[in-house]
Amino acid sequence: MNKSQKKFFGTDGIRGTANKFPMTAEIALKTGMAVGARFGKNFTKNLHRHRVVIGKDTRLSGYMIEPALTAGFVSMGLDVFLVGPVPTPAISMLTRSLRADIGIMISASHNPYFDNGIKIFDAKGEKLDDEIESEIENLIDADLNKYLADPSDLGRVKRLEDARGRYIEFVKNSFARDKNLSGLKIAVDCANGASYSMAPTIFRELGAEVFEIGVEPNGFNINLECGSTHPQALQKKVIELQADIGIALDGDADRLLIINEKGEIIDGDILIALIAEKLHQEGRLKRDIAVITQMSNLALEEYLGYIGVSTIRTKIGDRYVLEAMRKNKCNFGGEQSGHLVLADYSTTGDGLIASLQILSILIDQGKPISEISKIFKPYPQILQNVKFNKIDSHLNDKAIINFIEKKEIELGAQGRILVRKSGTENLIRVMVEGKNEEQIKKIANEICYEISKFVN
């Protein structure tokens, strides 16, 4: 079963509208059973006591998904540690810390409250590869009774009360001990999500004056007009408070967005460049390589090359960034969207660890973040979406492929075209990049129109 044929898994676990396929209690139960079977003793023949860590963000539907998953794991003989609302990278860390076999994060990241998802980490705190996801899919649809634990071997469930404190210390340990944030005014937007109680605490404990928004989750307001996908409120707050910097996280805090002191958004590719340059100058960038995705701007690649840093491009998705980092023995990579992976500290994207790296640069340079971030000018980049309601996105149709190739020839060597199906929504994403903004707008519109004729 290849990735395109997967029934449940997308680019980042299983995701969908809550209480509709595949994000139902029934599928969550079967997923818990299937993952428990795949990593439990009746499958692996490893007789140690198997463990799973389960966390979630602040969505109402987490109360439905969490117990269903828990029941599935317990039925397979796995002990379950429930940690409540924590960021996704906390699950990666806790899975390693507790020597668990598997980690589960219940979240749909930056999506609205009515979506939810199941992200799965292995014992190393890394997201599963395509092959294991395919094995789990096969198990979900199979007869799992033969893997059920005996009554005496059923798993136990325990709530880990100090999970938040463990993660707070983990994040703070990524910040140099000879530094503090004293004198900085930081505005932070936690998106009414998983980091609502931890992000402000971390910045305050390191000495900053902190102003917080998006810290009153009610089950429905996660990512609602707040967080990294809706930064307008934070932009206003930064200007109003004359803050030195604004930090916007998404619902599960695995990515970030930075606002400068003027209330302007700093592009994610700029953040990648700043951190890569810092690591390079300090001799801490392994092999002097940064891993980026197909979405990153050509200007980023050119700038990193200018300062002596090579780049490797991957498919879009932090799991692919991580795969390329492991394969090429690199310790830094990221996505334009703000997923930044610092492998010396974490095995997945961590918005809080990345924000501390940016704050460290701000302290070192002693200049406003608006000045620090003026290192290159991104090429114009047009992003458009085409919604489709059919199962088939038609991106493999010869007519569409030929049309896109024709437009690539028209654009020439001074730009790029990327057309892909979203891994989390029924959208076809079209990106056109080049030096001539008028030309790329025209090409993007033409491609979207051509695709819409097939899918609508």
Structure commentary:
The protein is of the alpha/beta class and 456 residues long. It is 36% helix and 21% strand. Strand 15 (332-334) and strand 16 form a beta hairpin. Helix 1 (25-39) packs across helix 5 (130-140).
Layout: helices, strands, pairs:
Elements: E1 9-10, E2 13-17, H1 25-39, H2 41-44, E3 51-56, H3 62-75, E4 79-85, H4 88-97, E5 102-106, E6 115-121, H5 130-140, E7 157-159, H6 163-172, E8 185-189, H7 199-205, E9 209-213, H8 232-241, E10 245-249, E11 256-259, E12 265-266, H9 268-281, E13 289-293, H10 298-306, E14 310-314, H11 318-327, E15 332-334, E16 340-342, H12 351-365, H13 369-372, E17 381-387, H14 398-411, E18 415-421, E19 427-434, H15 437-455
Parallel strand pairs: 3-4, 3-5, 4-7, 8-9, 8-10, 13-14
Antiparallel strand pairs: 1-2, 2-6, 5-6, 10-11, 11-12, 15-16, 17-19, 18-19
Helix pairs in contact: 1-3, 1-5, 9-12, 14-15
